[in-house]
Design brief:
By secondary structure, this protein is of the alpha+beta class. The chain is built from 25 helices and 27 strands. It has 6 domains: 112 residues, PAS domain (Beta-Lactamase, 2-Layer Sandwich); 97 residues, PAS domain (Beta-Lactamase), CATH 3.30.450; 123 residues, 2-Layer Sandwich (Beta-Lactamase); 114 residues, Beta-Lactamase (2-Layer Sandwich); 93 residues, Helix Hairpins, CATH 1.10.287; 150 residues, Heat Shock Protein 90, CATH 3.30.565.
Length: 781
């Protein structure tokens, strides 16, 4: 029994221990479960934070495999994140470009090897998104084995904002610079005072007006342009403006260069920054007002001497001036002028004295004439007055709303109408004696007058013209004789232009019998229109012959252009071949040659080079004379350009033991074709070298322009060589025919230089004297 009780106790203890152990294990498992749930919740939270973070991580392993959220794929324009970094280069303009992938991979490998961070900015292909990549070595807890982590930031919005701010800052800076330059160069004195009313800034006009040496002297000495007014200095007046924040305009007297002038001065507040001021010279305006008053008085004195009446009305329709003839015509006294007589009252008084036409409704007639003040152009009327007087009235509206009324007594001219018939008969006889066919049309289109040639030219009968047909009847009769009857409308248009539109017009047509007529309409002073007709059949034939000749000349020019193109190839190809083979022989490609054979080959090479140069000169000269020389202009600084030309000929200059002096300074730039201009100047330098004996001197000079001359393109080449006679110089320039005498040369270099300079729009002047030397002056635009 005792043994059994002990065993039971042991068993009970074992069971109790087992139960306790099981409970402990259950509690530990529950705690681990809770921690796992917390970790999962935290992991989800961290994953969400990564998804919404402004930066996206990109993990790059050592073998190029990458891990990144899908958001990065959207930024790069890809459907999904690829497995390797090299696969970020997408197709069809997606993802990164190949250079961008290679650059990123190089930087990642450098980071993996040296643990040095890097930073790079990229823009995916076909996207406006700007991405900033910040790379460093990944923490071993994130990815062991030396992986690199790249944080990708999208700063598109920031970059756009920065670009906009830079643009606005640049615009504001340029506007401020332009405004400062405008103030500095303003022709009127301008200044700015600080809050203490001391001069802080002034422009050049202010400095000149006060007679100071510089702006610093003005600021240091506080030199005032204006004088005290009403016991207040200019600074005190500006202080009042600053305190009241109100602009003040006044006219003050200023002494400038010992001369007293009136200036309109303006002081305006600049908030809390001080007061700005400027002064405008109004002396000329006041002088102009005085001159205008003197001119008006002189004009009125002159109008009093005229034989026609002239009256001036102001914008208020009141009479301001009337000369003596006008006062005499309308019976006006000096007291009336001083009373500012109104225009409608003047017409009413004139009607009572019988000095206006008799009309049925005078008030309406008067209102119609008051509209003269608002007319847009000059108006003219004729007033037949009771008693036989006849007045010509001209109304000229003025820009200020006033009116100038001119009254001319035309009574005596009516007496001349008695001679009108005699004048018409004289005119008819004159027209009949002319070679041209003429006809005069009335404003209604009827034929009033014609000469004998008119009927014969158009194939009309004299009886038909005696009926004074209308324009429509005349055109119908003329249309039957035309090659194209519908062209008769052109004649009608010319007649209408001359009679109704009062303007000249001309035309041309062909008759059925093969003749060609040119006709023109001319408005006549009496309101009629003149139709003049001329047979130009012979001149048309001559014009056709000239046109055919011009076409032939154009074809000849085309043939010349093709010839130059062909000759350019035909000349250069054989010379190039000869020179190439000679150089091969000289290099030993065909075997060793003797000393004499080598000299022959060298002579061939030199001759080929010389002949090539002459061919180039001939072709270029032909092209310039034909107007086919291509000129490609660019900015050329003359001093470095001439220096390079001299350096190319340094060997020849040293060999000839010549002295060369190049004078000038940099900055004198012209627009020219460097190659063609270099050939022109080079030919002149070569001629100077060839024409100057040993020990001579050549001078190339860029003269300094005069003070009133802003031209920069003059080159003078001078030598003290043998020179040449005037006749040969003119022959080389092409002014005289070429000479057949041996030893004179062709002068292609000088002639080509002249043509090339002319092609640039410049001139080449040469002057030479035997035993003295030669001077060449090139003038470029």
């Amino acid at each position: 029994m005792e043994v059994s009780l002990t065993a039971l106790i042991v068993i009970a203890l074992l069971l109790a221990a087992w139960t306790v152990a099981a409970a402990v294990l259950m509690l530990r498992a529950s705690a681990k479960t809770q921690r796992t749930k917390a970790l999962q919740t935290s992991l989800k939270r961290m994953q969400h934070l990564v998804d919404v973070a402004p930066a996206v991580p990109l993990l790059v392993r050592t073998d190029g495999r990458i891990e990144a959220p899908e958001r990065l794929a959207r930024w790069l324009g890809l459907e999904k994140i690829p497995a390797y970094l090299s696969e970020l280069e997408g197709a069809s303009g997606e993802g990164l470009s190949k250079p961008q992938v290679e650059e990123l991979w190089d930087k990642v490998r450098a980071t993996q090897k040296s643990a040095s961070p890097f930073s790079v900015t990229i823009t995916p292909s076909g996207s406006q998104r700007s991405l900033s990549l910040e790379g460093s070595l990944a923490d071993p807890q994130v990815s062991p084995g030396g992986a690199a982590i790249v944080w990708v930031f999208d700063f598109t919005t920031s970059e756009s904002e920065l670009a906009r701010l830079r643009t606005e800052a640049s615009i504001a800076k340029s506007d401020f610079a332009a405004l400062s330059g405008l103030i500095a160069s303003a022709p009127i004195p301008m200044w700015i005072r600080d809050p203490e009313m001391k001069l802080r800034l002034a422009n050049k006009a202010y400095v000149e007006a006060v007679g100071a040496d510089s702006l610093e002297a003005v600021i240091e000495g506080q030199i005032e342009l204006l004088e005290a007014r009403d016991g207040q200095s200019p600074a005190q007046i500006a202080r009042g403006v600053f305190e009241r924040k109100e602009q003040i305009d006044r006219v003050d007297g200023v002494t400038i260069d010992g001369e007293r002038r009136s200036m309109r001065v303006t002081d305006l507040p600049l908030g809390e920054d001080g007061v700005a001021g400027y002064a405008i010279d109004v002396e000329e305006r006041q002088q102009l007002a005085r001159n205008f008053r003197a001119f008006r008085d002189a004009q009125r004195a002159m109008l009093d001497q005229l034989s026609v009446g002239v009256a001036q009305f102001g914008a208020d329709e009141a009479l301001s001036f009337a000369n003596r003839p006008f006062r005499r015509l309308f019976g006006l006294s000096n007291d009336v002028l001083e009373g500012k007589l109104a225009f409608d009252r003047l017409l009413a008084d004139a009607r009572e004295r019988g000095q206006t036409p008799e009309v049925r409704d005078f008030p309406e007639w008067r209102e119609e004439h008051r509209a003269w003040f608002d007319a847009a152009e000059t108006l003219e009327e004729y007033w037949p007055l009771p008693g036989g007087m006849h007045l010509r009235i001209v109304a000229q509206p003025m820009p200020d709303g006033g009116l100038v009324m001119i009254a001319e007594d035309r009574t005596e001219q009516l007496a001349l109408s008695a001679t009108r018939d005699t004048l018409l008969r004289t005119r008819t006889a004159t027209l009949d004696s002319l070679f041209e066919a003429l006809a005069i049309f009335a404003p209604d289109g009827s034929v009033q007058l014609w000469n004998r040639s008119f009927a014969g030219t158009w194939g009309l009968s004299g009886n038909f013209l005696d009926t004074h047909p209308s324009a429509e009847e005349l055109l119908a009769a003329i249309g039957t004789n035309l090659e194209t009857p519908s062209e008769s409308e052109a004649i009608g248009a010319v007649v209408r232009a001359a009679t109704l539109d009062r303007r000249e017009k001309e035309g041309q047509l062909a008759l059925a019998d093969g003749r060609t007529l040119r006709f023109a309409g001319v408005p006549l002073p009496d309101g009629n229109g003149l139709l003049t007709v001329l047979d130009i059949t012979d001149s048309q034939k001559a014009e056709q012959a000239l046109r055919e000749r011009a076409i032939a000349l154009e074809e000849a020019d085309a043939v010349k252009a093709r010839f130059l193109a062909n000759m350019s190839y035909e000349f250069r190809t054989p010379l190039t071949t000869i020179g190439g083979f000679a150089e091969l022989l000289a290099s030993g490609a065909a075997g060793d040659m003797g000393e004499q054979a080598g000299e022959y080959v060298d002579a061939i090479i030199k001759s080929v080079a010389r002949l090539t140069e002459q061919v180039e000169n001939v072709l270029d000269l032909s092209q310039t004379e034909a107007g086919l020389m291509p000129i490609t202009k660019e900015d050329v600084d003359l001093l470095p350009f001439l220096t390079s030309l001299v350096r190319e000929r340094e060997t020849a200059i040293v060999k000839a033991r010549l002295g060369l002096d190049l004078k000038g300074r940099r900055g004198r730039v012209v627009e020219a074709d460097p190659r063609q201009l270099g050939r022109a100047i080079g030919n002149l330098i070569d001629n100077a070298i060839a024409g100057t004996p040993n020990g001579g001197k050549i001078t190339i000079e860029l003269p300094k322009p005069a003070r009133d001359d802003d031209w920069r393109g003059r080159i003078i080449i001078r030598d003290d060589g043998r020179g040449m006679p005037r006749e040969r110089l003119e022959r080389l320039m092409g002014a005289l025919p070429e000479s057949d005498e041996p030893g004179e040369g062709t002068g292609l270099g000088i002639r080509l230089a002249h043509q090339l300079v002319a092609a640039h729009g410049g001139t080449l002047e040469l002057d030479s004297h035997e035993g003295v030397g030669t001077i060449a002056v090139i003038t470029l635009p």
